[in-house]
Amino acid sequence: MSRPEWAPYGVDLDRPNAARVYDYYLGGAHNFAVDRAMADQALADWPELPLIMRANRAFLRRAVRFLVDAGVRQFLDLGSGIPTAGNVHELARAATPDSRVVYVDIDPVAVAHSRAILGDDPCVVAAQADLRDPAAVLDLVRREGLLDLSQPVAVLLVAVLHFVPDGDDPGGIIAGYREAMAAGSYLAICHASADGQGDRAEKHRALYSRTPTPMTMRSREQIDALLKGFEPVPPGLVHMTLWRPDDGEDLPADPGNFPGYAAVALRR
Ligand SMILES: C[S@@+](CC[C@H](N)C(=O)[O-])C[C@H]1O[C@@H](n2cnc3c(N)ncnc32)[C@H](O)[C@@H]1O
User: Fold this and answer.
1) CATH assignment at residue 185
2) Which residue has a Cα nearest atom 14 of ligand 1?
């Protein structure tokens, strides 16, 4: 396959990639044949996946609204993905124009496309970095000078911690960010879980082992442990569709069909 114009040089066109597979589920155009083939294989076992991805994006939107209402004006979006409608900077700035956002993703396509969308916006930065190295990411944030880490910041880890294997110590990584976050900061997470999913979770995990970011689904208890040192705001760590649904929103009859847990938690 030849490299499309929007894909940066050096991108591996022959290996599926989590950012682009997710883009495909969400109806985006920044994915390759190899990503679509993997996604179609996953969909054969789990046709609800696009709905789950949309529910994750809906959580992200509600969380950003909550954070803006709580007075947060700075966002560090780790594993931010390929921008689709309703990005963090658009949501935050619709509510308050002085919001500043740093997007970080390990995937060059996600970063290139974010930069193309952002243009020369002085209040938003997109950087390519590995969130598993908090010292390097925080260093980058300080050098960019857009966020003031002496003031509250929202660190967003939405649909990305399941790409951090246990061996990389996700709890230690989060602690690395927590130590740099001023009192009054928040952490928002949404994390895939295999709870109640039986075989198909294992098949899903096996598919992602082909990508550069293999998947580790965790139980509610394991995800809860990642919130150590933070105080979840009500309703706590819950199935993603149950985190502060909008008034009048149709809720799924069985929230367990959306197998991921979400929380927003305060750093005191
Ligand atoms: C499923 S997407 C989530 C995008 C966005 N946060 C959302 O919820 O809509 C996961 C993103 O995490 C990125 N990612 C995976 N591992 C990462 C890492 N170690 N550092 C930074 N980004 C990572 C992937 O490239 C992908 O863009």
Assistant:
1) 3.40.50.150
2) 79
State which amino acid sits at residue 86. G
pLDDT beyond 90 at 249? no
Q: Closest Cα to residue 144, out of 68, 95, 67, 76?
A: 76
pTM comes to 0.96
In a domain, 3, yes or no: no
End-to-end CA distance of the chain: 51
Domain housing 175: 49-267
What CA–CA distance (Å, rounded) separates 104 from 136? 12
Contact between 170 and 140 (Cβ < 8 Å): no
Q: Is the CB of 16 under 6 A from ligand 1?
A: no
Q: Is the pLDDT of residue 210 over 90?
A: yes
What single-letter DSSP state applies at residue 224?
H
CA of 77 to the centre of ligand 1 (A): 9
Q: Which atom of ligand 1 is nearest to the CA of 56?
A: 8
Rounded to 5 degrees, φ, ψ at 57 are -65, -35
What whole-number distance in Å separates Cα of residue 127 and Cα of residue 115? 9
- ∠121-127-129 over CA atoms, to 5°? 170
From 106, 111, 162, 258, give the residue whose CB has the most ligand 1 atoms within 8 Å, as the site to mutate: 106
Query: What count of Cα atoms within 13 Å lies in the side-chain half-sphere of residue 7?
Result: 16
Cα 179 to Cα 15, 138, 146, 154, distances in angstroms = 36, 11, 19, 13
Burial class (CB in 10 A: 0-12, 13-18, 19+), 167: exposed
* Residue-level pLDDT at 84: 76
Instruction: Please check whether residue 79 lies inside any domain of the structure.
Output: yes
- Indicate whether 24 belongs to any domain: no
Residue labelled with tokens 């990639």: 17
